[in-house]
Amino acid sequence: MSNGASGNPATVKPVIRRVDPAVFGFRFTKNCDIRLCKGQCCRTGIIMAPSEAARILAHKEAVMEMMDDTQTRDSSRWFDEPATPERLKQLETEGKEIASAVHNHKCVFLDAIGACALQKLALKEGTHRWAYKPYHCILFPFLVEEGTLSVDLEHGDNIRARYNEEFFCDHRGPNAIARGIDVCREELMYALGSYPAYEALQGSAPEK
Ligand code: SF4
């Protein structure tokens, strides 16, 4: 599997020791396409490892170039607290994460049409599209908590409550017509580390 991001030490990939059965029954939209939802899942921002924030800030001028006027190019406002090198180091030591800021009712890195500036930068540079993206962003709608691969069923509820709008990818909604483990093949391969591991996951699914 080609994956530039996996070779970047800033990306923290937790070890997966268990798979929540909810993963197999989870239904998702068949075509994850930001032209349909304008990056709705990115509206509340994202938590990330301090090393991932440091990687973004190390490329801040290039990230700024990917932004439009609905975003802020002031990098001191990209996180929900001052992301100084000292603070990031402290968070790393404490095993804590840092959140991207919400600006104009969306993640500070999300542009007006729903595209992520971090992904746009990677594509412009010709590297893997996830080279600058935080792990949690890559894996959504799945997540890994305490070694368990599971499904983030709460995120849509948070969006709905915060913005009073329906969540396009709602697992209970009309767009949830495909198996998440089929739609998110590349994301799950990334999380599990290999195609054989993904095949094993597919093989252990109780239903097609
Ligand atoms: S960093 Fe990018 S992918 Fe992650 S929530 Fe923000 S805009 Fe979305």
Which features would summarize this protein structure in a list?
single chain; 208 residues; binds iron/sulfur cluster; three-stranded mixed β-sheet
Provide an overview of this structure.
- The protein is α+β, with helices and mostly antiparallel strands and 208 residues long.
- It has one domain (5-201).
- The protein has helices at residues 22-25, 34-37, 50-58, 60-65, 85-94, 117-125, 135-139, 155-163, 180-183, 185-192, 195-203; strands spanning 18-19, 27-29, 47-48, 98-99, 102-103, 106-107, 142-145, 148-151, 176-179.
- It has a three-stranded mixed beta sheet, with no helix packed on it. Strands 2-9 form a two-stranded antiparallel ribbon. The chain has a two-stranded antiparallel ribbon with strand order 3-4.
- β7 (142-145) and β8 form a beta hairpin.
- Iron/sulfur cluster (SF4) binds at residues 39, 42, 46, 100, 107, 109-110, 116, 118, 133-134, 137.
Small-molecule components bound = iron/sulfur cluster
Structural class by SSE content: alpha+beta
Number of E strands: 9
* H/E topology pattern: EHEHEHHHEEEHHEEHEHHH
Count of discrete alpha- or pi-helical segments spanning 4 or more residues: 11
What would you say about this model in short?
This protein is an alpha+beta fold and about 210 residues long.
Describe how the helices and strands are arranged:
Layout: E1 18-19, H1 22-25, E2 27-29, H2 34-37, E3 47-48, H3 50-58, H4 60-65, H5 85-94, E4 98-99, E5 102-103, E6 106-107, H6 117-125, H7 135-139, E7 142-145, E8 148-151, H8 155-163, E9 176-179, H9 180-183, H10 185-192, H11 195-203
Parallel strand pairs: 1-8
Antiparallel strand pairs: 2-9, 3-4, 5-6, 7-8
The structure holds iron/sulfur cluster.
Iron/sulfur cluster (SF4) binds at residues 39, 42, 46, 100, 107, 109-110, 116, 118, 133-134, 137.
